[in-house]
Amino acid sequence: MINKIVESCATAIADIKDGDTVMIGGFGEAGSPIELIHALIDHGASNLTVINNNTGSGRVGLAALIENGQVAKMICSYPRTANSLVFPELYRSGKIELELVPQGTLAERIRAGGAGIPAFYTKTSVGTPLADNKELRSFEGDDYVMERGLKADFALIKSKQADRYGNLIFNKTARNFAPIMAMAATKTLVQCNEIVELGDIDPEHVVTPGIFINRIIEVKKPQQESKLVKEGVVYP
Amino acid sequence: MSNEIQGKQQTAMNQEKNIGWSREQMAQRCAKDIEDGCYVNLGIGIPEKVAQYVPKGREVIYHTENGLLGMGNAPSDDELDPDLINAGKKPVTAIPGASYFHHGDSFAMIRGNHIDVCVLGAMQVSECGDLANWSTGAPDAIPAVGGAMDLVAGVKTIYIITQHTTKTGAAKILPQCTFPLTGKGVVSRIYSDLCVIDVTKKGLVLTELAPDISFDYVQARTDVTLINAVK
Protein backbone atom coordinates (compact mmCIF):
# COMPACT_ATOMS: atom_id res chain seq x y z
CA MET A 1 0.00 0.00 0.00
CA ILE A 2 1.20 3.46 -0.82
CA ASN A 3 0.60 5.97 1.92
CA LYS A 4 2.86 9.03 1.94
CA ILE A 5 1.02 10.70 4.82
CA VAL A 6 3.16 11.26 7.92
CA GLU A 7 2.10 12.34 11.37
CA SER A 8 3.95 15.59 11.92
CA CYS A 9 6.18 18.18 10.31
CA ALA A 10 8.98 17.03 12.63
CA THR A 11 8.73 13.48 11.25
CA ALA A 12 8.61 14.77 7.69
CA ILE A 13 11.86 16.74 7.91
CA ALA A 14 13.74 14.44 10.35
CA ASP A 15 16.38 13.18 7.88
CA ILE A 16 17.49 16.56 6.55
CA LYS A 17 21.18 16.73 7.45
CA ASP A 18 23.90 19.34 7.77
CA GLY A 19 25.13 20.55 4.39
CA ASP A 20 22.00 19.53 2.44
CA THR A 21 20.50 21.59 -0.37
CA VAL A 22 16.88 22.44 0.33
CA MET A 23 14.41 24.00 -2.10
CA ILE A 24 11.63 25.92 -0.35
CA GLY A 25 8.48 26.84 -2.29
CA GLY A 26 6.79 30.21 -2.12
CA PHE A 27 6.90 33.65 -3.67
CA GLY A 28 6.93 35.94 -0.68
CA GLU A 29 4.43 34.40 1.71
CA ALA A 30 2.23 32.89 -1.01
CA GLY A 31 3.00 29.18 -0.96
CA SER A 32 5.57 29.37 1.82
CA PRO A 33 5.45 26.10 3.85
CA ILE A 34 5.90 27.92 7.14
CA GLU A 35 5.15 24.96 9.46
CA LEU A 36 7.71 22.76 7.68
CA ILE A 37 10.29 25.57 7.87
CA HIS A 38 9.66 26.00 11.59
CA ALA A 39 10.09 22.25 12.06
CA LEU A 40 13.45 22.53 10.28
CA ILE A 41 14.44 25.30 12.71
CA ASP A 42 13.51 23.04 15.65
CA HIS A 43 15.49 20.21 14.04
CA GLY A 44 18.59 22.37 13.68
CA ALA A 45 20.27 21.07 10.50
CA SER A 46 22.92 23.62 9.53
CA ASN A 47 25.23 24.68 6.71
CA LEU A 48 22.27 24.38 4.35
CA THR A 49 22.06 25.73 0.82
CA VAL A 50 18.54 27.09 0.40
CA ILE A 51 16.84 27.79 -2.93
CA ASN A 52 13.87 30.18 -2.78
CA ASN A 53 12.91 33.24 -4.81
CA ASN A 54 13.41 35.53 -1.80
CA THR A 55 14.94 35.47 1.68
CA GLY A 56 11.82 35.69 3.83
CA SER A 57 10.37 38.58 5.76
CA GLY A 58 10.29 39.61 9.39
CA ARG A 59 11.72 37.03 11.80
CA VAL A 60 9.57 33.98 11.02
CA GLY A 61 9.64 31.26 8.36
CA LEU A 62 12.59 31.41 5.96
CA ALA A 63 13.94 34.60 7.56
CA ALA A 64 14.01 32.83 10.94
CA LEU A 65 15.81 29.83 9.43
CA ILE A 66 18.46 32.24 8.11
CA GLU A 67 18.61 34.20 11.37
CA ASN A 68 19.11 30.93 13.25
CA GLY A 69 22.41 30.50 11.38
CA GLN A 70 21.33 27.35 9.54
CA VAL A 71 21.80 28.69 6.01
CA ALA A 72 25.31 28.99 4.53
CA LYS A 73 24.15 29.95 1.05
CA MET A 74 21.03 31.35 -0.60
CA ILE A 75 20.24 30.85 -4.27
CA CYS A 76 17.54 33.38 -5.18
CA SER A 77 16.44 36.15 -7.55
CA TYR A 78 15.31 38.84 -5.15
CA PRO A 79 16.92 38.73 -1.70
CA ARG A 80 15.42 41.96 -0.37
CA THR A 81 11.80 42.93 0.11
CA ALA A 82 10.00 45.48 2.24
CA ASN A 83 10.24 43.40 5.41
CA SER A 84 13.50 41.52 4.89
CA LEU A 85 15.43 42.38 8.02
CA VAL A 86 17.62 39.33 8.49
CA PHE A 87 19.36 38.62 5.19
CA PRO A 88 20.76 42.09 4.36
CA GLU A 89 22.63 42.33 7.65
CA LEU A 90 24.15 38.83 7.40
CA TYR A 91 25.08 39.41 3.76
CA ARG A 92 26.80 42.73 4.48
CA SER A 93 28.80 41.16 7.30
CA GLY A 94 29.86 38.29 5.00
CA LYS A 95 28.10 35.62 7.04
CA ILE A 96 25.98 34.24 4.22
CA GLU A 97 26.75 33.53 0.58
CA LEU A 98 24.41 34.67 -2.22
CA GLU A 99 24.04 33.25 -5.69
CA LEU A 100 21.85 35.74 -7.54
CA VAL A 101 19.88 34.21 -10.42
CA PRO A 102 17.32 35.89 -12.70
CA GLN A 103 13.89 34.63 -11.71
CA GLY A 104 13.09 32.86 -14.98
CA THR A 105 16.53 31.30 -15.12
CA LEU A 106 16.05 30.11 -11.54
CA ALA A 107 12.72 28.52 -12.51
CA GLU A 108 14.17 26.90 -15.63
CA ARG A 109 17.24 25.63 -13.75
CA ILE A 110 14.89 23.95 -11.28
CA ARG A 111 12.68 22.53 -14.04
CA ALA A 112 15.73 21.28 -15.93
CA GLY A 113 17.12 19.68 -12.76
CA GLY A 114 13.86 17.82 -12.27
CA ALA A 115 13.65 16.76 -15.91
CA GLY A 116 17.14 15.25 -16.10
CA ILE A 117 18.63 18.10 -18.13
CA PRO A 118 22.07 19.12 -16.81
CA ALA A 119 22.33 22.46 -18.63
CA PHE A 120 20.57 24.69 -21.15
CA TYR A 121 21.08 27.95 -23.02
CA THR A 122 19.07 31.13 -22.47
CA LYS A 123 19.22 34.73 -23.72
CA THR A 124 18.44 35.98 -20.23
CA SER A 125 21.39 37.90 -18.70
CA VAL A 126 23.51 38.00 -21.88
CA GLY A 127 25.56 41.21 -21.78
CA THR A 128 25.04 41.66 -18.02
CA PRO A 129 27.26 40.94 -15.00
CA LEU A 130 25.18 37.82 -14.24
CA ALA A 131 26.59 36.19 -17.39
CA ASP A 132 30.20 36.74 -16.29
CA ASN A 133 32.34 33.58 -16.40
CA LYS A 134 29.57 31.57 -18.03
CA GLU A 135 29.81 29.83 -21.40
CA LEU A 136 28.32 31.84 -24.28
CA ARG A 137 27.16 30.25 -27.48
CA SER A 138 25.55 31.60 -30.60
CA PHE A 139 22.46 30.00 -32.15
CA GLU A 140 20.98 31.41 -35.37
CA GLY A 141 22.88 34.65 -34.87
CA ASP A 142 21.85 35.34 -31.27
CA ASP A 143 23.97 34.92 -28.16
CA TYR A 144 22.89 32.65 -25.31
CA VAL A 145 24.39 31.88 -21.92
CA MET A 146 24.70 28.36 -20.54
CA GLU A 147 22.96 27.72 -17.23
CA ARG A 148 23.09 24.55 -15.15
CA GLY A 149 20.13 22.51 -13.94
CA LEU A 150 19.51 22.64 -10.19
CA LYS A 151 18.73 19.69 -7.97
CA ALA A 152 18.18 19.44 -4.24
CA ASP A 153 18.24 16.86 -1.50
CA PHE A 154 14.86 18.04 -0.24
CA ALA A 155 12.02 20.29 -1.35
CA LEU A 156 9.58 21.75 1.17
CA ILE A 157 6.36 22.91 -0.46
CA LYS A 158 2.74 23.75 0.36
CA SER A 159 -0.43 22.67 -1.42
CA LYS A 160 -4.15 23.18 -1.03
CA GLN A 161 -5.05 19.50 -1.29
CA ALA A 162 -3.22 16.19 -1.45
CA ASP A 163 -4.28 12.56 -1.59
CA ARG A 164 -2.23 9.73 -0.11
CA TYR A 165 -0.47 9.10 -3.45
CA GLY A 166 0.75 12.71 -3.37
CA ASN A 167 -1.38 14.12 -6.17
CA LEU A 168 -1.58 17.85 -5.54
CA ILE A 169 -3.58 20.93 -6.36
CA PHE A 170 -2.60 24.42 -5.27
CA ASN A 171 -4.30 27.69 -4.39
CA LYS A 172 -4.02 30.53 -6.91
CA THR A 173 -0.58 32.17 -7.12
CA ALA A 174 0.64 30.10 -4.15
CA ARG A 175 1.52 27.45 -6.76
CA ASN A 176 4.57 29.39 -8.06
CA PHE A 177 7.74 27.27 -7.64
CA ALA A 178 6.17 24.24 -5.91
CA PRO A 179 5.47 21.96 -8.91
CA ILE A 180 8.98 22.35 -10.38
CA MET A 181 10.73 22.06 -7.00
CA ALA A 182 8.75 18.86 -6.36
CA MET A 183 10.37 17.43 -9.51
CA ALA A 184 13.92 18.59 -8.73
CA ALA A 185 14.39 17.23 -5.22
CA THR A 186 15.36 13.71 -4.16
CA LYS A 187 12.70 13.93 -1.46
CA THR A 188 9.75 16.31 -1.62
CA LEU A 189 7.79 17.07 1.52
CA VAL A 190 4.38 18.70 1.25
CA GLN A 191 2.33 20.47 3.84
CA CYS A 192 -1.24 20.56 2.59
CA ASN A 193 -4.28 22.34 3.95
CA GLU A 194 -6.42 19.26 3.36
CA ILE A 195 -5.89 15.56 2.73
CA VAL A 196 -8.56 14.11 0.45
CA GLU A 197 -9.47 10.58 -0.65
CA LEU A 198 -7.99 9.01 -3.76
CA GLY A 199 -10.17 10.07 -6.70
CA ASP A 200 -11.43 13.22 -5.03
CA ILE A 201 -9.04 15.24 -7.18
CA ASP A 202 -10.17 14.82 -10.79
CA PRO A 203 -7.20 13.32 -12.69
CA GLU A 204 -7.71 16.09 -15.27
CA HIS A 205 -7.13 18.66 -12.54
CA VAL A 206 -4.08 17.18 -10.84
CA VAL A 207 -1.31 19.81 -11.04
CA THR A 208 1.54 17.80 -9.52
CA PRO A 209 1.31 14.02 -10.02
CA GLY A 210 2.09 11.97 -6.92
CA ILE A 211 5.26 10.42 -8.36
CA PHE A 212 7.14 13.60 -7.40
CA ILE A 213 6.00 13.55 -3.78
CA ASN A 214 7.48 11.59 -0.88
CA ARG A 215 5.82 12.78 2.32
CA ILE A 216 2.60 14.61 3.08
CA ILE A 217 1.60 16.33 6.28
CA GLU A 218 -1.79 17.93 6.81
CA VAL A 219 -1.67 21.43 8.32
CA LYS A 220 -5.30 22.48 8.39
CA LYS A 221 -4.88 26.08 9.40
CA PRO A 222 -1.39 27.21 8.42
CA GLN A 223 -0.02 30.38 9.94
CA GLN A 224 0.04 33.44 7.74
CA GLU A 225 3.51 34.94 7.43
CA SER A 226 2.41 38.56 6.89
CA LYS A 227 0.20 38.38 9.97
CA LEU A 228 3.06 37.06 12.11
CA VAL A 229 5.39 39.77 10.73
CA LYS A 230 2.82 42.45 11.51
CA GLU A 231 2.53 41.15 15.07
CA GLY A 232 6.31 41.17 15.42
CA VAL A 233 6.49 37.42 16.08
CA VAL A 234 9.98 35.95 16.33
CA TYR A 235 10.50 32.19 15.76
CA PRO A 236 11.43 30.13 17.75
CA MET B 1 28.06 77.39 -17.85
CA SER B 2 27.53 74.73 -20.51
CA ASN B 3 24.08 74.15 -21.91
CA GLU B 4 24.16 70.68 -20.44
CA ILE B 5 24.79 71.77 -16.86
CA GLN B 6 22.37 74.65 -17.19
CA GLY B 7 19.77 72.21 -18.53
CA LYS B 8 20.23 69.81 -15.64
CA GLN B 9 19.81 72.54 -13.06
CA GLN B 10 16.69 73.78 -14.81
CA THR B 11 15.25 70.28 -14.87
CA ALA B 12 15.57 69.95 -11.14
CA MET B 13 13.81 73.28 -10.78
CA ASN B 14 11.20 72.57 -13.44
CA GLN B 15 10.25 69.21 -11.99
CA GLU B 16 9.09 71.09 -8.94
CA LYS B 17 6.97 73.33 -11.17
CA ASN B 18 5.18 70.27 -12.58
CA ILE B 19 5.78 70.89 -16.23
CA GLY B 20 5.57 68.04 -18.71
CA TRP B 21 3.51 64.90 -18.14
CA SER B 22 2.62 63.66 -14.65
CA ARG B 23 3.16 59.99 -13.67
CA GLU B 24 -0.49 59.31 -14.53
CA GLN B 25 -0.18 61.07 -17.88
CA MET B 26 2.93 59.08 -18.79
CA ALA B 27 1.04 55.87 -18.01
CA GLN B 28 -1.93 57.13 -20.02
CA ARG B 29 0.26 57.99 -23.01
CA CYS B 30 1.87 54.55 -22.92
CA ALA B 31 -1.53 52.85 -22.61
CA LYS B 32 -2.61 54.36 -25.96
CA ASP B 33 0.05 52.21 -27.67
CA ILE B 34 -1.14 48.92 -26.17
CA GLU B 35 -3.20 47.24 -28.84
CA ASP B 36 -6.38 45.23 -28.54
CA GLY B 37 -5.71 41.57 -27.74
CA CYS B 38 -2.23 42.05 -26.31
CA TYR B 39 -0.76 39.96 -23.50
CA VAL B 40 1.02 42.49 -21.29
CA ASN B 41 3.35 42.38 -18.30
CA LEU B 42 3.59 45.56 -16.23
CA GLY B 43 6.55 46.31 -13.98
CA ILE B 44 6.31 47.71 -10.47
CA GLY B 45 5.70 51.48 -9.98
CA ILE B 46 4.44 53.82 -12.72
CA PRO B 47 4.09 50.92 -15.22
CA GLU B 48 1.40 49.40 -12.97
CA LYS B 49 -0.75 52.47 -13.64
CA VAL B 50 -0.90 51.69 -17.39
CA ALA B 51 -3.69 49.16 -16.75
CA GLN B 52 -6.00 51.96 -15.59
CA TYR B 53 -5.74 53.84 -18.87
CA VAL B 54 -6.05 51.29 -21.66
CA PRO B 55 -8.63 52.84 -24.03
CA LYS B 56 -12.17 51.47 -23.83
CA GLY B 57 -13.05 48.74 -26.28
CA ARG B 58 -9.62 47.09 -26.10
CA GLU B 59 -9.31 43.72 -24.38
CA VAL B 60 -5.86 43.33 -22.82
CA ILE B 61 -4.72 40.37 -20.70
CA TYR B 62 -2.26 41.11 -17.91
CA HIS B 63 0.41 38.58 -17.02
CA THR B 64 2.11 38.54 -13.66
CA GLU B 65 5.22 36.39 -13.60
CA ASN B 66 4.38 34.68 -10.31
CA GLY B 67 1.80 32.64 -12.17
CA LEU B 68 -1.36 34.42 -13.34
CA LEU B 69 -2.74 35.45 -16.72
CA GLY B 70 -5.79 37.65 -16.40
CA MET B 71 -4.82 39.81 -13.45
CA GLY B 72 -7.63 42.12 -12.34
CA ASN B 73 -7.87 45.13 -10.07
CA ALA B 74 -6.88 45.40 -6.43
CA PRO B 75 -9.26 43.37 -4.23
CA SER B 76 -11.92 44.66 -1.86
CA ASP B 77 -11.43 43.61 1.77
CA ASP B 78 -13.80 40.68 1.17
CA GLU B 79 -11.90 39.46 -1.88
CA LEU B 80 -8.43 39.74 -0.32
CA ASP B 81 -6.48 36.47 -0.42
CA PRO B 82 -2.78 36.33 0.60
CA ASP B 83 -2.38 33.50 -1.96
CA LEU B 84 -3.43 35.82 -4.81
CA ILE B 85 -0.72 38.43 -5.36
CA ASN B 86 1.21 40.09 -8.17
CA ALA B 87 4.95 40.15 -8.85
CA GLY B 88 5.25 43.13 -6.49
CA LYS B 89 3.66 40.91 -3.81
CA LYS B 90 0.56 43.12 -3.64
CA PRO B 91 -2.90 41.51 -3.42
CA VAL B 92 -4.76 41.36 -6.75
CA THR B 93 -7.83 39.68 -8.23
CA ALA B 94 -8.26 37.31 -11.17
CA ILE B 95 -10.67 38.17 -13.99
CA PRO B 96 -13.17 35.65 -15.40
CA GLY B 97 -11.11 33.65 -17.91
CA ALA B 98 -7.91 33.91 -15.86
CA SER B 99 -5.47 31.02 -15.49
CA TYR B 100 -2.88 30.00 -12.91
CA PHE B 101 0.39 28.23 -13.69
CA HIS B 102 3.76 27.51 -12.13
CA HIS B 103 6.94 29.56 -12.46
CA GLY B 104 8.42 27.29 -15.12
CA ASP B 105 5.45 27.86 -17.44
CA SER B 106 5.23 31.52 -16.53
CA PHE B 107 8.78 32.22 -17.63
CA ALA B 108 8.37 29.99 -20.69
CA MET B 109 5.66 32.47 -21.70
CA ILE B 110 8.21 35.24 -21.24
CA ARG B 111 11.36 33.59 -22.62
CA GLY B 112 9.44 31.93 -25.45
CA ASN B 113 8.28 35.30 -26.87
CA HIS B 114 4.60 34.73 -26.05
CA ILE B 115 4.11 37.98 -24.12
CA ASP B 116 3.54 40.92 -26.49
CA VAL B 117 4.45 43.95 -24.39
CA CYS B 118 6.29 44.62 -21.15
CA VAL B 119 6.38 48.07 -19.55
CA LEU B 120 9.23 48.71 -17.13
CA GLY B 121 10.91 51.52 -15.24
CA ALA B 122 14.52 52.51 -15.88
CA MET B 123 17.56 53.89 -14.12
CA GLN B 124 19.35 54.42 -17.45
CA VAL B 125 18.67 53.76 -21.14
CA SER B 126 21.37 53.95 -23.80
CA GLU B 127 21.31 55.20 -27.37
CA CYS B 128 21.12 51.63 -28.69
CA GLY B 129 18.35 50.54 -26.31
CA ASP B 130 20.45 49.01 -23.55
CA LEU B 131 18.58 49.08 -20.24
CA ALA B 132 19.88 49.37 -16.68
CA ASN B 133 17.14 49.09 -14.06
CA TRP B 134 18.22 46.60 -11.37
CA SER B 135 21.40 47.82 -9.69
CA THR B 136 23.52 50.91 -9.31
CA GLY B 137 26.51 48.63 -8.85
CA ALA B 138 27.24 50.20 -5.44
CA PRO B 139 29.51 47.83 -3.48
CA ASP B 140 27.35 47.80 -0.33
CA ALA B 141 24.03 47.25 -2.17
CA ILE B 142 22.21 43.92 -1.86
CA PRO B 143 21.89 42.82 -5.48
CA ALA B 144 18.35 41.83 -6.48
CA VAL B 145 17.22 41.22 -10.06
CA GLY B 146 13.86 39.42 -9.94
CA GLY B 147 12.39 38.78 -13.39
CA ALA B 148 13.64 41.93 -15.15
CA MET B 149 16.40 40.23 -17.16
CA ASP B 150 14.05 37.48 -18.31
CA LEU B 151 11.38 39.98 -19.34
CA VAL B 152 13.70 42.15 -21.45
CA ALA B 153 15.29 39.07 -23.05
CA GLY B 154 12.00 37.41 -23.99
CA VAL B 155 9.09 39.82 -24.37
CA LYS B 156 8.51 41.01 -27.95
CA THR B 157 8.26 44.75 -27.20
CA ILE B 158 9.79 46.57 -24.23
CA TYR B 159 8.39 50.00 -23.33
CA ILE B 160 10.06 52.15 -20.68
CA ILE B 161 8.29 54.73 -18.54
CA THR B 162 10.69 56.98 -16.69
CA GLN B 163 11.34 60.52 -15.56
CA HIS B 164 13.54 62.09 -18.24
CA THR B 165 16.29 62.90 -15.72
CA THR B 166 17.21 61.83 -12.19
CA LYS B 167 16.00 63.75 -9.13
CA THR B 168 19.23 65.73 -9.19
CA GLY B 169 18.80 66.53 -12.89
CA ALA B 170 21.33 64.08 -14.31
CA ALA B 171 20.53 62.58 -17.70
CA LYS B 172 19.12 59.04 -17.72
CA ILE B 173 19.25 58.72 -21.51
CA LEU B 174 22.94 58.23 -22.27
CA PRO B 175 25.37 57.15 -25.00
CA GLN B 176 26.18 54.11 -22.79
CA CYS B 177 24.71 52.96 -19.48
CA THR B 178 27.13 53.31 -16.58
CA PHE B 179 25.12 51.03 -14.27
CA PRO B 180 25.15 47.22 -14.72
CA LEU B 181 22.89 46.24 -17.62
CA THR B 182 19.57 44.43 -17.43
CA GLY B 183 19.71 43.70 -21.15
CA LYS B 184 21.46 44.85 -24.34
CA GLY B 185 19.53 46.52 -27.14
CA VAL B 186 16.15 45.59 -25.67
CA VAL B 187 14.20 48.88 -25.41
CA SER B 188 11.76 49.83 -28.19
CA ARG B 189 10.29 53.07 -26.87
CA ILE B 190 10.71 55.50 -23.97
CA TYR B 191 7.84 57.47 -22.42
CA SER B 192 9.30 60.23 -20.24
CA ASP B 193 7.67 63.16 -18.51
CA LEU B 194 8.85 65.31 -21.44
CA CYS B 195 8.40 63.23 -24.59
CA VAL B 196 8.12 59.92 -26.43
CA ILE B 197 11.32 58.53 -27.96
CA ASP B 198 11.65 55.55 -30.30
CA VAL B 199 14.84 53.52 -30.27
CA THR B 200 15.77 52.88 -33.92
CA LYS B 201 18.78 51.67 -35.90
CA LYS B 202 19.42 55.30 -36.91
CA GLY B 203 19.36 56.47 -33.30
CA LEU B 204 16.90 57.91 -30.80
CA VAL B 205 13.94 59.49 -32.60
CA LEU B 206 11.79 61.96 -30.68
CA THR B 207 8.24 61.40 -31.96
CA GLU B 208 6.09 63.41 -29.56
CA LEU B 209 6.50 66.21 -27.03
CA ALA B 210 4.55 66.82 -23.84
CA PRO B 211 2.49 70.05 -23.93
CA ASP B 212 4.60 73.25 -23.75
CA ILE B 213 7.87 71.30 -24.03
CA SER B 214 10.25 72.11 -26.89
CA PHE B 215 12.67 69.84 -28.70
CA ASP B 216 15.60 71.96 -27.50
CA TYR B 217 14.41 71.67 -23.91
CA VAL B 218 14.44 67.86 -24.17
CA GLN B 219 17.75 67.80 -26.03
CA ALA B 220 19.38 69.86 -23.26
CA ARG B 221 18.40 67.12 -20.79
CA THR B 222 19.52 64.19 -22.94
CA ASP B 223 23.15 63.11 -23.31
CA VAL B 224 22.48 61.67 -26.78
CA THR B 225 21.81 63.68 -29.95
CA LEU B 226 18.11 63.15 -30.70
CA ILE B 227 16.51 62.97 -34.14
CA ASN B 228 13.52 65.31 -34.23
CA ALA B 229 10.50 63.70 -35.90
CA VAL B 230 7.96 66.16 -34.49
CA LYS B 231 6.55 68.38 -37.21
How would you characterize the overall build of this protein?
The complex is a heterodimer of chains A (236) and B (231). Chain A has 236 residues and is an alpha/beta fold. Chain A has seven helices and eleven strands. In chain A, helix 2 runs parallel beside helix 3 and helix 5 packs across helix 6. Chain B has 231 residues and is of the alpha/beta class. Chain B has one domain: Glutaconate Coenzyme A-transferase (3-Layer(aba) Sandwich). Chain B has six helices and 13 strands. In chain B, strands 4-3-2-1-5-8-10-11-12-13 form a ten-stranded mixed sheet. In chain B, strand 2 and strand 3 form a beta hairpin. Chain B starts with a helix and ends with a strand. At the A-B interface, helix 4, helix 5 and helix 6 of A face helix 4 and helix 5 of B.
Written as H for each helix and E for each strand, in order along the chain, the element string of chain B is: HHEHEEEHEEEHEEEEEHE
Architecture (CATH level 2) name of the domain at 17-100 and 151-224 in chain A: 3-Layer(aba) Sandwich
The unreliable regions of chain B are 1-14
**CATH homology group of the domain at 17-100 and 151-224 in chain A:** Glutaconate Coenzyme A-transferase
Shape of chain B: globular
* Main beta-sheet annotation of chain B: 10 strands, mixed
CATH T-level fold name of chain B: Glutaconate Coenzyme A-transferase
Relative strand content of chain B: 15-25%
What's the total helix number of chain B? Answer: 6
How many whole angstroms does the radius of gyration of chain B measure? 18 Å
CATH architecture label name of chain B = 3-Layer(aba) Sandwich
Oligomer: heterodimer
How helix-rich are the residues of chain B, as a percent range? 10-25%
Largest sheet of chain A: 8 strands, mixed
What is the averaged pLDDT score of chain A?
97
Task: Extract low-pLDDT stretches of chain A.
Answer: none
Structural class of chain B: alpha/beta
Tell me the number of helical segments of chain A per DSSP (H or I, 4 or more residues long): 7
> H/E order of the elements of chain A?
HEHEHEHEHEEEEEHEEH
Largest interface: A-B, 51 and 40 residues
Shape of chain A: globular
